[in-house]
């Protein structure tokens, strides 16, 4: 019998608290001694920093961990109408690290968070940055638009006339079906994962911003050259950990990464889907730690 992802594993995710970044209130999870190296966890669409709940206790002995719910997602503010842009989400990370007086960090990113990471890496290639990203681990995400296979519901939500209506018609059951379809065959999401992630989307205010947030799909095409160069020209360690059974950005994305990135560093997780940090937390941490920990 298939074991639901996360079954029989407790997770110790801090509740978090609100932090003012510019004009908005964002939700931040921040745990660990300030003396430890900083690891910033960047979550995907359409969820929250809670996605890192299974890897958090495994990473906690090694890092001060930060996870910010993106503007428009999780427990952060959801302004509407609003033009949600990747550059603005990257600005939030810049502001957060400045506000916390952090000058060096590593990044663990997933999905939408991968795209924000590409923008942050592109910025690092310019001089005068207030902090240094020392290493990056990317989990399943649409790094290259030509290889990204958006789900039908995502494509429909992007349409100006259909999207706002469809967003309000999403139900708990349809959401659960969509999520199960992108997990690995032996690691389906458990009820706790589905309930927790749906709770963040259930309020009308959360669903009405989904079409605007999905503008990142068009941004990936618009900024492809910049965000590809962020990876090809990176001067720091970057590792791509891929759940190969992911229909959105799995084996086909790994193949494209290998074709485009010189000396591509890829860890392939067979039979794991779109959420490797939830489906295979031990494997993810084992593969990520050698990259994320500062050199002795």
TrEMBL record:
Where does the AB hydrolase-1 domain lie? 37-148
Q: Which Pfam families does the record associate with it?
A: Abhydrolase_1 (PF00561)
- Name any GO cellular component annotation: membrane
Q: Which UniProt keywords apply?
A: Hydrolase
Q: Which GO terms describe its molecular function?
A: monoacylglycerol lipase activity
Q: Which GO terms describe its biological process?
A: acylglycerol catabolic process
PANTHER family the record matches: HYDROLASE, PUTATIVE (AFU_ORTHOLOGUE AFUA_2G14860)-RELATED, MONOACYLGLYCEROL LIPASE
List the protein's name: Alpha/beta hydrolase
**Looking at the record's lineage, which domain of life comes first?**
Bacteria
Which sequence ranges form a coiled-coil region, renumbered to this chain? none
């Amino acid at each position: 019998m298939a074991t639901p992802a996360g079954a029989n594993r407790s997770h110790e995710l801090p509740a978090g608290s609100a932090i003012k970044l510019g004009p908005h209130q964002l939700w931040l999870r921040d745990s660990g001694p300030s003396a430890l190296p900083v690891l910033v966890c960047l979550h995907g669409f359409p969820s929250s920093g809670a996605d890192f709940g299974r890897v958090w206790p495994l990473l906690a002995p090694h890092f001060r961990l930060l996870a910010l719910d993106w503007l428009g997602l999780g427990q952060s503010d959801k302004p509407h109408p609003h033009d949600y842009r990747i550059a603005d989400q990257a600005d939030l990370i810049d502001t957060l690290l400045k506000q916390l007086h952090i000058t060096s960090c590593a990044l663990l990113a997933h999905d939408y968070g991968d795209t924000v990471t590409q923008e942050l890496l592109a910025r690092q290639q310019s001089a005068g940055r207030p902090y240094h990203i020392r290493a990056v681990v990317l989990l399943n995400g649409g790094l290259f638009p030509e290889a990204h296979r958006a789900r039908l519901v995502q494509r429909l939500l992007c349409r100006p006339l259909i999207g706002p209506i469809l967003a309000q018609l999403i139900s708990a059951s349809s959401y659960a079906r969509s999520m199960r379809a992108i997990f690995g065959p032996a690691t389906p999401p458990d009820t706790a994962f589905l309930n927790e992630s749906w709770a963040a989307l259930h309020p009308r205010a959360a669903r009405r911003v989904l079409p605007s947030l999905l503008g990142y799909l068009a941004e990936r095409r618009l900024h492809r050259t910049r965000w590809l160069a962020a990876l090809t020209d990176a001067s720091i360690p970057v590792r791509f950990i891929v759940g190969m059974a992911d229909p959105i950005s799995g084996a086909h994305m790994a193949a494209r990464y290998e074709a485009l990135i010189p000396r591509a560093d890829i860890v392939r997780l067979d039979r794991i889907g779109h959420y490797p940090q939830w489906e295979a937390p031990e494997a993810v941490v084992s593969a990520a730690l050698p990259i994320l920990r500062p050199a002795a």
